[in-house]
Amino acid sequence: MEIELITIGDEILTGSVINSNVAFISRELIKLGYKIGRHTTLSDDIKIIKEGLQTALARSTLVITTGGLGPTIDDLTRGAAAQLFDSPFHLDLSIVKDLKERFGELPISLEDQATVPSKALVLPNKVGTAPALIFDKRLILLPGVPNEMRTFLTNDILPYLQKHYPVVQSQVQEELYFCQLSESLIDNQLRLLQQKYPQVNIGIYPDLGTVMVQLKSVDSNSLYTFIEELQKEWKSYLLPCSKIETALMNICIQSIQKLIFAESCTGGMMAAKITSQAGASQYFLGSLVVYSNELKQKYLGVSDRTLREKGAVSKEVVSEMLEGLFIHTEADYGIAVSGIAGPDGGSPSKPVGTIWAAMGKKGEIPDLWTFHTQLNREGIILLTTYRLLGALYRKIVFGIAGGE
Amino acid sequence: MEIELITIGDEILTGSVINSNVAFISRELIKLGYKIGRHTTLSDDIKIIKEGLQTALARSTLVITTGGLGPTIDDLTRGAAAQLFDSPFHLDLSIVKDLKERFGELPISLEDQATVPSKALVLPNKVGTAPALIFDKRLILLPGVPNEMRTFLTNDILPYLQKHYPVVQSQVQEELYFCQLSESLIDNQLRLLQQKYPQVNIGIYPDLGTVMVQLKSVDSNSLYTFIEELQKEWKSYLLPCSKIETALMNICIQSIQKLIFAESCTGGMMAAKITSQAGASQYFLGSLVVYSNELKQKYLGVSDRTLREKGAVSKEVVSEMLEGLFIHTEADYGIAVSGIAGPDGGSPSKPVGTIWAAMGKKGEIPDLWTFHTQLNREGIILLTTYRLLGALYRKIVFGIAGGE
Question: Residue B316 belongs to a domain with what CATH number?
Fold first, then answer.
């Protein structure tokens, strides 16, 4: 069976709101072994909604919609579905009672929320006002407010699906996340493994600094042997979770290691990624964003002479930056980075995208390395950030030196 | 004309990745006056992609896809479109040359990226490897990597659309951007102005820290009088451009003011926003991301006693943090911030979302103020960042104290 998701609302279509509802519903359904056939977003237009529902119902076993169930003039999903299933409306007194208990005397707009299609199964809304509706066991209408949608999905819809559409032969799905590894490098091995295990379905999704490999198969033996071979080959690149910053946080908290950074070209992005995680204060001391040479000298003791003779983007400067971090703090591991994020400031010997990094453990000889990135400013900053966080993760876990 | 967006990729369909690409593309197109008819997400399956493209092309003037253009085995969009337009493939030597210059000798997978449908217009990818393709002026294929997609959209696709599908602007459209102003506050005045100028169409789009007011009318006199009244009322909240960080950069460079920050709860995000702008090094000295109390004492001279007696989130601590910045550097303006980003760490007297800020000009008495934000961790960090950057902009331009 295939499930289709339809989102209704101009705020999604115009990009005012990012559609996180469909990602949530999809994840929950996939976990239970269901297959998602398609996502569609439709405008607040009753004709378009009706036609969209009809097409989806003709194509898929089950359709779940979000949005357009509220009390205002642009909420049209309920009406469209009722037309499609040729259903009259009636006032549901149990909903009126429930709404009155929670909201007091009802304005007209709330009475409207209790007026439901007679042919639909009505599920009361415990956190908001609009009830969810199920037509003919095949069309499920949920509110678009994320909190209400999630409550319905978890408490009502997933149990309903498991009862009426038990998953017979679910295919197994696994996702592997790699850092510091290029898509084309791992692709070669995936092609070889694909020939060996043709039953396994492969998806590769590169992001800045990580590559996600998604594997699916009805034959779980093949799948897990495939994964074993992949893990053996790329062990030190494999992340235990989807994000580098989470992997780094977990290993640092576990092994009681404190981190500190000195950032020039990344301009605070490394610190921002680390502190985006709740729990960062357990292992992250902070970051000196020494964007100007003045701060590099003042706070890290980089010498005026090194800056003049070697330039701010050099092995010598990042080395002194890292040294400065360890002199003044109790950090265990540190990273110092300096580079040219562009679009200006490049030269023939140090073009835009040139990065120098120093990384090390207090008391040990640091790793110093350079790399070059062909992206725009935003990309250079982000890719450098993830490369360095990934390098630090691999150093702490596997003892691998930066740049290797 | 109507534009449809199609996303291709199982990672979106399964909910592993939230589809932020369509929101971005939609916003950019809407700004230019185009209309978005539908969003669809399809699986990595060549039959489904082909059928999906066909249906969309039959229904809409123009179709833009993202995803499925990479060099790996699950990248099928190019093939599906070529079949639909009955196009053979050829090796494009200019792309081979460009890729070799940027990536060295090509593995097979990169040679594949230079193999393009002969009937398509080929746009070279300046930041990644997959070129964008345009078939018959009606089907535009873009890569799914957000950074590459955005670069193509801004540099190539929007100008292409404006050339080939000029929007007949019978109506004038203007956008005003405000910072430090709540949606509901400006909404009241907009309702009054709406009654006075019924010919003017109003849209309000709040974002973290800014509110965009979009005004459209066929009657340009009404529109500009409307705008004048609005500007008069909210003069000191009005930004000269769409982004706070750009406004701040321009005024600082113009008036030769140097900035420095001390960040605790924003964790480097303020610095990251500032340094996202090319040109930041002209006025931004840097930021001390003093996440731990150890660094607050070491680098800013915050006293142990103040930290113990008042707590890290207090008027006294941000005041000492700001003082510390001015003692050691040549900055003209500084901001110091400390708060509870959550989800843990709150208390009845200082709940999650409590922020203390200090802002000032060197040698002057600083502004000290507190505010509270009801968002999740990510929201608290971003909203605090934009509120403080907005407050600094208003202080430099209008002399308005922080928190007012």
Answer: 3.90.950.20
Q: Do B127 and A375 touch (CB under 8 A)?
A: yes
Picking from A164, A180, A211, the residue at the C-terminal end of a domain is A164
Classify A77 as helix, strand or coil.
helix
Q: Taking a C-beta distance cutoff of 8 angstroms, is the pair A4, A139 a contact?
A: no
Residues B319 and B392 in one domain: yes
Do residues A39 and A22 touch, judged by C-beta distance below 8 A?
A: yes
Phi, psi of A275 (to 5 degrees): -80, -5
* CA pair distance B71, B129, nearest whole angstrom: 8
Q: Do A160 and A185 share a structural domain?
A: no
Does residue B403 lie in a domain region?
no
Same-domain status, A147 and A197: no
For residue B294, give the nearest of A205, A285, A294 by CB distance: A285
Q: Which structural domain, as residue segments, surrounds residue A232?
A: 172-239
User: A318 and A224 in one domain?
Assistant: no
Phi, psi dihedrals of residue A319, rounded to the nearest 5°: -65, -45
pLDDT of B182 reads: 77
- Rounded Cα distance between B225 and B61, Å, is 36
pLDDT by residue (tens digit) across B381-401? 999 999 999 999 999 999 999
- On whether any CB of chain A is under 8 Å from the CB of B294, the answer is yes
B49 plus B193 within the same structural domain: no
**CA of B177: how far to CAs of B28, B204, B215, in Å?**
16, 10, 11
B268 touches chain A (CB under 8 A): yes
Residues A144, A259 within the same domain? no
CA-nearest residue to A3 within chain B is B13
Residue B335 lies in a domain: yes
Which of B21, B35, B63, B72 has the highest number of chain A CBs within 10 A, making it the mutation to test binding with A? B72
Amino acid B202 reads: I
DSSP codes joined into one string, A245-260: HHHHHHHHHHTT--EE
Walk along chain A (404 residues) in steps of 10 and give the mean pLDDT of each run.
94 86 92 91 95 96 94 83 96 89 71 90 88 97 89 95 85 89 85 92 84 89 94 94 95 96 98 96 97 97 97 98 96 98 91 97 97 89 96 96 92
Whether residues A40 and B39 touch (CB distance < 8 A) is answered with yes
Cα–Cα dist B358/A287, whole Å? 20
Domain count, chain B: 3
In chain A, the percentage of residues whose pLDDT exceeds 90 is 73
